[in-house]
Amino acid sequence: MKKQILLGAAFLFAASMTFGQTNGNRVDCDDCSIPQVDCLDCSIDQLVSGPRGADINTSLVDQDGVGNTAIVDQYGDGNFSTVKQDGQMNMYGGVGNEAYVDQYGVKNHSDIKQEGNYNYGEVYQEGFKNYAKQDVGVGWAEYNDAFAHQYGEENTSFQKQRYDNNMAHVDQEGIANYAEQDQSSGANGANGSTAYIWQFGTENQAKQMQRGSDNNAVAIQEGFQNTSSEDQMSDAGGSSWNNSYVDQWGAWNLSCVYQDATGRGAYNDSFVWQTGENNSSFVNQYARRFGSNVSSVVQNWFLYGHDNVSKVNQVAIAGRNNSDVWQEGSHNMSVVDQYAVRRSSNTSSVYQFGGGNTSGVGQYASSGASNESNVMQSGAGNYSAVNQNAEGIGSWNDSDVFQDGYDNYSCVDQNAIGGFSNMSIVSQIGDNNQSFVDQNAITASNTSNVNQMGNGNLSCVTQVGTTGTPF
């Protein structure tokens, strides 16, 4: 099954931006429109669960009650192990059961099923095309731990945990491995669930899905052409927050984060760190009922990289959006779309260091909401586009752009309708810089400040307002 997330579909304002590498060769002061950026997609291929077609040696362990321990060791090819601990002798389900499975060889299969609280399951597999599955939880199952360790090629791990305070961990080393974890927590005194995936190698895939309250997900991948997908949905019952941390080292890696917090005071927090070249990061966040979205993307913090892409989409209803993007290297692209309503706020900060970088920021705020954008670019051939729309009493736009280098280009488009003000500051240092500011205010004021140093600079400021004092 292929899952595709189209980014940017939820945003209603007209700056559906898409752009390629564009240098600052514009001289038309009558046109300061924002370039368009194509809608980017994020996809991941899901492997089919189930045995790998071999069952030479077979082991079945079925235990009822509490405090049971199952240990299975299998050597060779085509081993098949099933461990079931269901606790039918206890009204609360199995309590304190433990299962350990070690398999060495090719096409081995391990299946662990545990019900109840305080259970522990661990699978160790070494070889080729091995399969490990753990299915944990029934009733109000809590405090269960599931571990899977796989070393080799084309290994697969599936771990499913139900209800609260559970922890799942997968580590894989090799080529073309697949790990999937699915956790769901209810409102029965839950602090949520924690999922962790570590993969080292090439063409590995990590998929984590969490539903309920207080979700935590960590994915660490080292190598090339790895994919990480984090899908979190938090609702009422706990603190209603989602935390996601993704760390990728290498090249051609892809990270996709989707977070939806629906409870009152909901909170989404995403941190993506990518080191290398041709890496892509896509973050989608939705917060409702006085919720908050926080996204941080770092690409090539220690090493200079090239052709990295970061896209952040944020929607907040009666809450706030905050996005920070840091990119080092050349030909990197950052796109931030933020949508805030009902006394919400949008804040975006973009830092780019290197040559030929592109930054696009689109912000929409209404009903007393605010937009704030900060763009800092250092290097040659940088390009910055900012589009801000504020509607309603008390809404306002604020944009700060700083560029250091040559052949830089800055475009700021601000619209305040029935709001407070448009404020724009542009600072450019170097040769052949160009600045375009377009401000439109209805029952609001416009303020523009442009500072340029060097030779061959061009500044174009257009202000339209029905009230207020343009200067």
Automatic annotation (TrEMBL):
Alphabetic keyword roster: Signal
Stretch forming the signal peptide: 1-20
GO cellular component, as recorded: pilus
Organism lineage string: Bacteria, Pseudomonadati, Bacteroidota, Flavobacteriia, Flavobacteriales
Source organism of the structure: Lutibacter profundi
InterPro entries xref list: Curlin_rpt (IPR009742)
One Gene Ontology biological process: cell adhesion
UniProt similarity note: Belongs to the CsgA/CsgB family.
Pfam name, any one: Curlin_rpt
Protein name: Curlin
